Amino acid sequence: MKKRLLLCLAAVLVLCVTAVAQDAKMQPLTFWYEYSVNPGKEAQFMELVKTVGAPVRDKLMTEGVIGAWGVETPLMRMPGGATHIIWYSVNDWSGVEKVDAAMRAQIAKLDEEAKGGASTGRKGGGGGMGVTARMMEIADVSKTRDYLTRDLVFVAGQAMPPAGTLPFTRFNYVKVKPGKGSEFRKTWEKYNKPVLDKLVADGVVLAYGLTVEEVRTDGDFTHFVWYAVKDLASLEKVRNTFNSDRDKRSQDEQDAITAAFVNVLDVDASRSEVDRSLIFKLGAMK
Prior knowledge:
By secondary structure, this protein is an alpha+beta fold. It has an 8-stranded antiparallel β-barrel, surrounded by 4 helices. The protein has helices spanning 19-25, 42-62, 93-120, 131-138, 181-191, 193-201, 233-247, 251-264; strands spanning 29-35, 66-74, 84-90, 145-156, 168-174, 207-213, 223-229, 271-282.
């Protein structure tokens, strides 16, 4: 989304529920905050995440508002791209409102405490600097960007990953031709979804989704498919499984699949990225 979207996480990934029911019923929203952290300020950014946003998101997770949240960074860097992405997943718009209100209250509180500390000479609170001022020092705030996405299809494995797992997530962005959205989804569900379902059943893929922006802000893509895995070696298994699925088909069928996707996509606009989780939390994790 992002040009990357970030995609999430999300994160995405409420991996504590069963795969069969989710696909039909769950269409969670994921809010993404993209940041461009200044070189050498990465540790300070993560400290800010842990002391400002994490307590709020963790509390809302225990209350059932947030299903999952995390922080990601691109595995492959690109000029002008975001360096860090914070994301959280909720069931609906009311969840977005609750998170937004809680974060605003937290920042206002900490900013006020920093002012009081500065006036009295007390230490702490970022050396008298409020959250807003600290963020402006740590990141290029002019490049900050937010996205809100909805999973049209959401499937997660039945077993949660072990606590402490920091997944990798691959995002495949596509631009569907005008008026072809429904046809693209049908084509994707016919040819690609069964492969991903097998990978979930085999434990290779932890979760996946077919996703769109809930609020359209980016013209570079219309849909993206994301899937989370426990390690990079699993990405090779995903590739091999898709290749095996295609290879077992006749040449005519392979050509028909290619034509079906070409018919609905601006193929030159397709792109991918892989993100590494720095923080990854699920509602059921201890």
